Amino acid sequence: MSVAEVRSTAEQKMQKSLDAMKTSFQKIRTGRAHAGLLDHIQVDYYGSMVPLSQVANVTVQDARTLGVQPWEKKMVQVVDKAIRESDLGLNPATSGDLIRVPMPPLSEERRREMTKIARGDAEHAKVAVRNLRRDANEQLKKLLKDKAISEDDERRAQEDIQKLTDRFVAEIDKLLATKEQEIMTV
Questions:
Q1: What residues does 62 pair with on adjacent strands?
Q2: Per CATH, is 35-102 categorized as 3.30.1360.40?
Q3: In the CATH hierarchy, which fold is given to the domain comprising 7-27+107-184?
Q4: C-beta of residue 145 within 8 angstroms of C-beta of residue 11
Q5: How far is 171 from 128, CA to CA, in rounded Å?
Q6: Is there a contact between 161 and 136 (Cβ–Cβ < 8 Å)?
Q7: Which residues does residue 51 pair with via DSSP β-bridges, in sequence order?
Q8: More confident call, 7 vs 107
Q9: What is the pLDDT, as a whole number, of residue 27?
């Protein structure tokens, strides 16, 4: 394995950590409705659990309402139940074959809880990025020990990995600040 491969692998894994954080941020409910909010909900579809997006069309009807239109008439009750039992605290209303999911306004206390959850997700992402830095540095030390690279090359590569880590941590902080602003906006 070369220095470039170590860096490339670390960068790809750090990007995956960032993407995982973005995905978890999408699950955090703000006062506004967005279609991605229901993405993680699993629905019982003929005995197997599938994502909601595979059995229904999710649309944003207005700023505080989602519309869920199951593709099969008999799935309406199943989808309604799945949304009701999810961890989002939503209370859908069914009218015919359309399920309306109103977003209740968040209380100040609930907004603060959501902010804490977002901070926790961001901290997990930072820890993952730092662990990837440590792994990359260990691989570089192994290359040095095996005399595949010089000490100067190892030092330069470690500095490069550190810059990469700093860049991803800064990106995580920026995304967290944006999400906190979004949550606290009434």
A1: 65
A2: yes
A3: Topoisomerase I; Chain A, domain 4 (1.10.132)
A4: no
A5: 14
A6: yes
A7: 42
A8: 7
A9: 73
Whether the CB-CB separation of 30 and 64 falls below 8 Å is answered with no
Whether this prediction's pTM lies above 0.85 is answered by no
The 3-class secondary structure across the chain, one letter per residue, is CCHHHHHHHHHHHHHHHHHHHHHHHHHCCCCCCCHHHHCCCEEEECCEEEEHHHCEEEEEEECCEEEEEECCHHHHHHHHHHHHHCCCCCCCEEECCEEEEECCCCCHHHHHHHHHHHHHHHHHHHHHHHHHHHHHHHHHHHHHHCCCCCHHHHHHHHHHHHHHHHHHHHHHHHHHHHHHHHHHCC
Degrees to nearest 5, angle at CA 115 with 50 and 13 = 60
Q: Return the domain boundaries, the chain.
A: 7-27+107-184, 35-102
- What token pair was written down for 9? 């692998």
Query: pLDDT band at 186, cuts 50/70/90?
Result: low
Model pLDDT, residue 29: 66
Q: Are 173 and 122 in contact (CB under 8 A)?
A: yes
